[in-house]
From TrEMBL:
One of its GO terms (cellular component) is cytoplasm. CDD domains: SOCS (cd03587). Keywords: ANK repeat, Repeat. It comes from the Eukaryota. Residues 482-526 form the SOCS box domain. SMART domains: ANK, SOCS, SOCS_box. The keyword Repeat applies. GO terms for biological process: intracellular signal transduction. It comes from Phoxinus phoxinus (Eurasian minnow). ANK repeats lie at residues 95-127, 128-160, 161-193, 194-226, 227-259, 260-292, 292-324. This is SOCS box domain-containing protein. The keyword Repeat applies.
Length: 526
């Protein structure tokens, strides 16, 4: 007889620990490299006599005729096989699947009843330690659950990760299953390996109806997982507003921190659930928030959660509050969240309280740099900013907003060679040393050419001149530094200097003819 591998059936019961509801698809017959065996054909056509004759057949996976009959839901074959000599009702496959487990998974209620009446053990688990009762809850088959419980199935038996049947019922929001299990004395606050209770599992998935039923039956609303998360924390994390309302109505503690020290308000702000933030704001203790070391405003800014950020700002949160990580504005700029930074600046955040402009320049974010400058960030001397950026677009933006380029051309002496590698934080590092660094050397000529448009009559130091002499821009640079600058150029610089950096931000709004406005605008944008 041709031997047949039953791996496709076995695979049906391999369940991922983290996605317990999914089950692999059965391999189609077109994918097989051999034909189905005589046993399979006999079971599928319901040939009781032939199946009985093959009752003792067992393949390499320990799959028997009884397993096949249970899989196919052939009740007559199951009954006949149970009467056959030498057939064990609880014989397991290599995956530790009994015929009962297979019948439950395939939702063959009649086969399940026959097997239980024949003495099948309802508590034999598979390799994942999942019992037939657990599988019946996965299938959401209340009648099968009732049948298994009536035959003595252990209602609180756990799978490998500690999940019980009630966890599964709660996750699926099946009230009938929850009721059946609780009537059979299921532990309402059973904990899995991570101390997750059915109520916490229901809250995590937004199963409000199941959660309400569990609470009515005594489930604790303030129990914590091994990470300190409560049902309220999980509902806030995943944005289940109705679940949060239910928990708050049943006195869930809005000031109980998780192991990381974050309150539910922090979690909701971090994940951008503005409706939940509004619910929690009046219930959250300012003392507890302060003790956490981080404000909800910081978290929403860091994660660019604009709606939550607006709710927090409207509630009166101090936009200039500084924690160990700095201000909320610094968090937003550090994370590259220009929109969050804009919200904070519009709400009155101080762009000069911390070196946020230097940080934005270092990141090369022109949009953020321009935003900070438009909201009053002071433009420092160019060498200091130049050491924090290697982006020409940022440099151009700084110059257009009035950054003083003259210090780059201040006459100076060159330090000895052994000091050329000093860090940028050390005083005395000259512009020519930076322009010769690997970061800038390839675009040194373009940088100097750009800077010369923002200064008057200046000269290059010998080191800078030597660096640029072979560049295509050198003739123009040499002409600009060796000859007097045009009067129009000097006048424009003088007018811009008199306007000051703050007025330069609104130069386009001056009631002047277009040609004059273009003249006053920096040529660095062209």
């Amino acid at each position: 007889m041709t031997r047949f591998t039953y791996a496709e059936y076995i695979s049906l019961f391999r369940t991922n620990d983290t996605k317990r509801s999914s089950s692999p698809q059965k391999t189609s017959s077109s994918e097989r490299d051999i034909e189905p065996s005589e046993l399979i054909c006999a079971v599928r056509r319901g040939d009781v006599q032939r199946v009985t004759e093959l009752a003792s057949v067992c393949d390499a996976d320990n799959w028997t005729a009884l397993h096949e009959a249970a899989h196919c839901g052939q009740t007559l074959c199951v009954q006949a096989l149970l009467k056959a000599r030498g057939v064990c009702v609880d014989k397991r496959t290599l995956q530790e699947q009994t015929a009962l487990m297979i019948a439950v998974h395939r939702r063959h209620l009649d086969c399940v009843k026959i097997l239980l009446e024949a003495g099948a053990d309802p508590d034999i688990s598979n390799k994942n330690k999942e019992t037939p009762l657990y599988k019946a809850c996965e299938q959401e088959c209340v009648a099968m659950v009732e049948l298994l419980l009536a035959c003595g199935a252990s209602v609180n038996q756990r799978c490998r990760r500690g999940w019980t049947a009630l966890h599964e019922a709660a996750r699926r929001n099946n009230i009938a299953l929850c009721q059946t299990l609780l009537q059979a004395r299921a532990a309402v606050d059973a904990r899995n390996a991570d101390d997750v209770t059915p109520a916490i599992e229901a809250a995590r998935h937004g199963r409000t109806e199941a959660l309400a039923y569990l609470i009515r039956n005594g489930a604790g609303v303030n129990l914590q997982t091994c990470d300190g998360n409560t049902a309220l924390t999980e509902a806030c994390r995943h944005g289940h507003g109705d679940t949060v309302k239910l928990l708050l109505q049943h006195h869930a503690d809005a000031n109980r921190p998780c192991s990381a020290g974050l309150l539910p308000l922090h979690i909701a702000s971090q994940h951008g659930h503005e409706e939940i933030v509004s619910l929690l704001l009046p219930l959250s203790s300012r003392v507890r928030v302060r003790e956490s070391g981080v404000s909800p405003l910081h978290l929403s800014a860091e994660h660019n959660q604009l709606n939550a950020l607006r709710v927090l700002i409207r509630s009166g949160c101090d936009v200039n509050l500084r924690r160990s990580s700095g201000s909320a504005l610094l968090c937003a700029v550090s994370a590259g969240n220009t929109q969050a930074a804009a919200e904070l600046l519009r709400a009155g955040a101080d762009p000069d309280a911390e070196p946020v402009l230097l940080l934005a320049a270092e990141q090369g974010c022109v949009e953020t740099v321009a935003l900070l400058l438009e909201h009053g960030a002071r433009v420092e001397a160019l060498p200091a900013l130049l050491t924090h950026t290697h982006h020409l677009s940022v440099l151009r933006c700084l110059l257009e907003h009035g950054c003083d380029a003259r210090p780059c051309f201040t006459p100076h002496t060159h330090p000895p060679e052994e000091h050329a590698g000093r860090s940028r934080s050390e005083p005395g590092l000259q512009f020519c040393s930076w322009i010769a660094s690997p970061r800038w050397s390839r675009s040194a000529a373009e940088v100097v050419d750009l800077l010369l448009e923002c200064v008057g009559n200046v000269q290059l130091c010998s080191r800078t001149a030597a660096l640029l002499r072979d560049a295509p821009e050198w003739p123009r640079i040499s002409d600009s530094t060796s000859s007097p600058r045009p009067l129009m150029h000097l006048c424009r610089l003088r007018v811009r200097e008199q306007l000051g950096t703050r007025r330069l931000r609104s130069i386009d709004s001056l009631p002047l003819p277009g040609p004059v406005l273009r003249y006053l605008s920096s040529r660095t944008s062209s």
